[in-house]
Design brief:
This protein folds into two domains: about 1-80, no CATH class; about 90-210, no CATH class. Helices cover about 40% and strands about 15% of the residues. It has helices at about 10-20, 90-100, 105-110, 120-130, 135-145, 150-160, 175-190, 200-210, and strands at about 1-5, 40-55, 55-65, 75-80. Strands 1-4-3-2 form a four-stranded mixed sheet, sandwiched between helices. A hairpin with a 2-residue loop joins strand 2 (about 40-55) and strand 3 (about 55-65). The chain is globular.
């Protein structure tokens, strides 16, 4: 199983903390979601993960914990690492957002991510996996926008957003889902106004911080809640 800790928002920031000696161990999980035990985890070794972001590739040491009651093991990933994916959240977020909001092919999209970046097939996979969940994600973001008292005119503008790539979708129903993805980006932009980071990247952190049952929106499958943040870069 996986837990997340928000020690850094990007690979570059994480490596900088590591080089400065300011990177500690993530907090142990407080409760085992399998057996219900509390304060029952102990450190259970480490393993290495290769993560790529913006043309940079790094080997990261990932801490593991084990429940002393039932034996369940848990890996603690930095929030920008996607389970079973080589590329970091920032790269995946930029690729998905670009395809959702700009008229381009998958080949055009990956070209913007760097010469040694993902393949068009990988970007297609990322977009396809996210649109499977876009309706539930959109409902959450719409709710946050209403709670943040965003003006009605701006909300209506967000609702009218469309993806320029929707008309050329060949899979039945995917055009509408791409439009929903464009709406998700538009609502996210309204919610995160003033943020310097990519909208989808910012929404990723928003979900980790605000959804009761934690979601890393770029991952596929159920996840555990994150561990509390210990270091603020």
């Amino acid at each position: 199983m996986i837990i997340f800790w928000s020690v850094a928002e990007s690979l570059a920031a994480y490596v900088k903390l590591m080089e400065c000696g300011k990177l500690g161990l993530p907090d142990r999980p407080q409760r085992c979601h399998k057996c219900g035990g509390r304060d029952c985890f102990w450190v259970h070794g480490r393993y290495w993960r290769t993560v790529e972001e913006g043309g940079r590739s790094e080997e990261l040491e990932i801490a593991r914990f084990k429940c002393s009651v039932c034996g369940r093991t848990v890996s603690a990933l930095p929030w920008f690492v996607i389970p079973r994916r080589r590329y970091a959240v920032k790269t995946v977020a930029e690729g998905i957002e670009g395809y959702a909001t700009q008229r381009e092919t998958y080949k055009d999209g990956v070209t913007k991510l760097g010469a040694d970046g993902p393949s068009p097939a990988q970007l297609f996979c990322w977009v396809s996996l996210l649109v499977e969940r876009v309706k539930e994600l959109l409902l959450d973001v719409q709710s946050w926008c209403v709670s943040a008292s965003i003006e009605e005119d701006e909300l209506l503008k967000c609702e009218a957003a469309e993806s320029p790539n929707a008309p050329k979708a060949h899979i039945p129903g995917k055009g509408q889902l791409l439009d929903d993805l464009a709406k998700l980006v538009s609502y996210g932009n309204a919610l995160l106004k003033g943020s310097k980071q990519n909208v989808m990247n910012g929404l990723g952190m928003q979900f980790l911080q605000n959804v009761e049952q934690v979601q890393q929106i770029f991952a596929h499958g159920g996840l555990w809640k994150q561990t509390p943040q210990r270091i603020k870069p």
